Amino acid sequence: MPVIKIQRFKRDAIKKELQHTLTKFNKDPSQSFGRFKLSQLEPEMKDGVRFYLISAGENVVAHASAKLLKQATMLTHFSVANSHNKELGIKVLLGLLKKLRKDGCEKLQLACHANHLDFLRQAGFIMVEEPPHHGDKPIYIMENPNLGYFLDTLAQKQLQGQGTGLPLLLGSDIDTYYFHDEKHYLNLHQRMLAQARKRIWIISDTINNPLLLDPSTGTAILRLIKRNPQSEVRLLVANDKQGAGYYNPTIQMAQKLSSYVEVRTLQKTNVRLSEMITLVDFGGNIFRKNLSDYTGFANFNSRLISQRLCDNFEQQWQYARPSVELRRLAI
User: Fold this and answer.
1) What are the Cα distances from residue 1, in Å, to 55, 91, 119?
2) Residue 219 backbone dihedrals phi, psi, to 5 degrees
3) Residue 115's pLDDT is what?
4) What is the spatial distance between Cα 111 and Cα 172, in angstroms, rounded to a whole number?
5) Smallest Cα–Cα separation from 309: which of 236, 218, 206, 230?
6) Of residues 279 and 50, more confidently modeled
């Protein structure tokens, strides 16, 4: 297959001849694979829109448009040639993601129908919003929360020829990931927490730990509760005084949803925290071995390790008690 080439245009820089070619491309029923929310170039798309033309050799094989939003980039359109060649579709989409990353995109969102879900999961997308009811063509909101981290992980797996299951996908990827710094630690949480369907349990040393200060942690918990009101959310904070009284997005959200989120502390108990644990559903786990540095491991599909860490969590949870300090935090 020829080398994939991706060109970026501003909408007002697209020539009429090119627009005619793309209109013809869109109307051809054989080019339907990978088409997302929009089926053609929409005239109302103006400011903040970037247009990408993808070619293989002399042939146009796909095109896409992305709109820069305040919190993320929205992939508003993607069409790729040859509806029967999924390998081409994935290669083109991954090439587009790499280009978007170079253009400064770190979080990417899109809307799609059910028949595109499996395709998008192969490119690191996670379902963050399901349709309220299933109509003829329900719309799902998908997100790639840390695009650069996913692409780096995928490249490393391909280089080493390792990996079973879709990369960083909860319940699929059976590889163990080792982290040695805060950034890697938070990246793993952003990927895993966003996929929660049944439970999120977190042990943290203090309120102002970077994990609880990360807005994506509170967002993931909120989405879980909306998706499944019967889910279990537990936050165990060893020291509830350090950082108390200051804005914290995760604690603020937990207080507003106190009927769904249990928050306890080990303050004034004989228990001393020496490690941090995160459990997501029944196979996802992130274990930080000590509080002096960011060293540990994560699994996206290991029930055995999750159960061992769950036992550890339960032992500390039973000694913990509701926090007076957390109730005093400003909302």
Assistant:
1) 11, 11, 20
2) -60, -40
3) 84
4) 23
5) 236
6) 279
